[in-house]
Amino acid sequence: MRMSITNARVFDGRSDVLTEPTTVTVDGQFIASLGDPRGDGETIDAVGHTLIPGLIDAHWHSVLAGVSQLEIATSDPRYIMLRAAQQAERTLLRGFTTIRDTGGPSFPLKLAIDQGVTPGPRIYPSGAMITQTSGHGDFRVRSELPRDPSKPLSAFEQVGISAIADGVDEVLRAARQQLMLGATQLKVMAGGGIVSPYDPLDATQYTEPEIRAAVDAAANWGTYVTVHAYTPASIRQAVRAGVRCVEHGQLLDDETVKILADRGIWWCLQPFLEDDANPMLDPASRAKQKKTYAGTERAYEMATAHGVKVAFGSDILFDPKFSEQQGAQLAKLVRWYAPAQVLRMATHDNASLLAMCGERNPYPAPLGVVEPGAYADLLLVRGDPLADIGLIADPTNLAVIIKDGQIVKNEIK
User: Fold this and answer.
1) Are 371 and 31 in contact (CB under 8 A)?
2) Residue 235: its pLDDT value, please?
3) Do residues 318 and 242 share a domain?
4) What is d(CA 226, CA 185) in angstroms, rounded to the nearest whole number?
5) What CATH number should be reported for the domain holding residue 321?
6) How far is CA 232 from the centre of its chain?
7) Is 273 exposed, middle or buried (0-12, 13-18, 19+ CB in 10 A)?
8) 10 forms bridges with which residues in the sheet?
């Protein structure tokens, strides 16, 4: 399919300003040219709109975002996957044409989307979250301990949400299993979390050799490990083990942030400041959540001061209502960044993080940019998001959504 988008002011994913009105030509799944008015095929007149790359969420849970934690634990997994497909289409209609899935059984959903069975974003899957016993991926109840090898795995392990592994050999096996299933990167739980019932937020999880085992397995496949962690101790251990990305980290200190900057390690942060995503009802989880809220402001300030490579991720879990806040979470970054920086983070910069999976990259052409040869993942925004970043918070402001050269939504007649 060929199409021409005319009279478009373009944010190309790299610049701080929009282009003058121009023509962007799409040929098949790729952008063919910018500024060539001789395009043929379907024409979309973008006057009054801004053309931007499709948005990228670097911390999303495709299967876990649109259902409650109770549903995950008690429902038929096939029903959960149907709900995930529904949520995938909604994610795409919010303008997120690519996501990095940082934990969950998203492999069949990715296959269905790639084959055109169901609409949804491109998925970079991590597969099951690798966790130690009592770690931030261990959702067993106390009556399931001690583990009995003669009994089935826990419910969350059986469906591929988490993989409980203790010791170097078990971590190696869990890592290799996710790579065999198609993981583009591995997710390791290196510190305490909020929704998990047994691990304190300040807990350092795994040992350095255990994390290094996952790093070695990933490196042998040409990809990398990202870790869930909040504290300086847990993140420094993970850095020593060779991880290349940190998720969360709202409790870091200056010295540790400087280490991330000096070593070129990505920091995937979430702008959690108040109860507009994932509010916890359990008192223990609620107390841990408030600690992360308190650290968010300083985390972004330190990241900016030290020049860390920052990625945007929303990390919305267990509630379809809050999943609708995905774009609003991104728009909140204007608290610390100029609008052009916000859009660059959610397009070009996030694409650079995703590309670290090297030969495991299922989408090897450029993402997150408007340039010849890049995938034609494009949004037409009503108005100018560089003047009002809030436009991207409301999906009704997305007049046209194109993914892989195919029109998903078109309200310009």
Assistant:
1) yes
2) 98
3) yes
4) 7
5) 3.20.20.140
6) 22
7) middle
8) 51
Residues 6+ apart with CB under 8 A from 362: 110, 114, 122, 124, 184
Segment 68-119, tens digit of pLDDT:
878 887 888 899 999 999 999 999 999 999 999 999 999 999 999 999 999 9
Residue 91 tokens read as 């994610």
Tokens read off for 231: 């504290």
Contacts of residue 354, defined as CB under 8 A and 6 or more positions apart, other chains included, come to 56, 58, 98, 100, 124, 184, 361, 367
| 199-234 CB burial, b ≥16 within 10 A, e <16 | bebebbbbbbebbbbbbbbbeebebbbbbbbbbbbb
**CA–CA gap between residue 17 and residue 235 (Å, rounded):** 36
Mean pLDDT lowest among 49-53, 198-202, 205-209: 198-202
* Nearest CA among 224, 250, 231 for reference residue 353: 224
**Six-digit token pair at 226?**
């990202």
User: Is 255 a member of any domain?
Assistant: yes
Do residues 83 and 35 both lie within one domain? no
> Helix, strand, or coil here: 6?
strand
d(C-alpha 2, C-alpha 29), whole Å? 9
Q: At what angle do helices 254-263 and 232-241 cross, to 10 degrees?
A: 20
Amino acid letter at 378?
Answer: L
Residues with Cβ within 8 Å of 156's Cβ and at least 6 positions away in sequence, in order, are 72, 73, 137, 139, 140, 162
How many Å apart are CA 194 and CA 282, to the nearest integer? Answer: 10
